[in-house]
Write a structure and sequence with these properties.
CATH class of the largest domain: Alpha Beta
Shape: globular
Strand content: 15-25%
Distance between the termini: 47 Å
Helix content: 25-40%
Strand order of the largest sheet: 2-1-3-10-4
Order of helices and strands: EHEHHHEEEEHEHEHEEHHEEEHH
CATH topology of the largest domain: D-Maltodextrin-Binding Protein, domain 2
Number of strands: 13
Structural class: alpha/beta
Amino acid sequence: MTVRIGTRGSKLALAQTATVCKKLVALGIEVEQKIISTQGDEVTGVPLHEIGKQGVFVRALDDAILNNEIDCAVHSMKDIPAIRPSGLFTSAILLRDSPADYLAYSGSMSAIKIIGTSSTRRKAQLLRHDPGLTINDLRGNVDTRLKKLGEGQYNAIVLAEAGLARLGIRIPGDRLPPEKFVPSPNQGTIAVVSRSDPSLMEVLSAIDHPGTRKDVAIERAVMEQVGAGCFTPMGIYCKGGHLIAEVLSLDGKRTERIEKNVETIDEARAEGDALRARAHDLIAEAYQTLGISYDR
């Protein structure tokens, strides 16, 4: 059986797909790779939350699977939206790499005044840590972001530590502890999405990591219940059943946070409901900045 694997064309996406291919080939499974462009790759001049809802890096690959152009696709799991098309299944979730953000900079930490990121979550968490910072938008692939840092457009930029490791990039900076700078749900996790074909799902399940699958399922259950949208600053992180989740105001001055041990998806949903109720005003404010009413 030859498995046709779709991927975005960025260096990071190709590196992640290479990891999946290597694991499958080691099991004696033949693979083919196909690069597919997505809306998130094509529109780079604006923050992600202005392009559309979560899924801008996913939809084209979903369509290619459903149209039988490929058998499966490799994603950063944090990019996969909560609502999925019928006929698709997340057949494998690899052992999680670092979930943490990484603050890349050179020189003295005290000299950092301007930080580049287009993530509302990262911006709010950085402002909570130091309200005197200036946070400017930054988009593009890792190379583009590092180039802008090198040109002095920013004193520091925020990247996912897992992405740097997958690309083999070592740069000066500091890891931001995920207990304080709570990452996006599923950050650091690679997922393989396929058609709901039992034979294909069985092949791909050989590279699945059950512990990671459980943790990210808990994170996604909380995310789905909060329903805050991609423009609301929100971090959710679970490790071995220990859940930390928070919603912040856009300026980082207010936070609603939960930290509990969670064993089941039902428990995770209950915690998500509780966090949504407590953070209702913060979520509504984030929606209001885009002129959208929030009535959950």
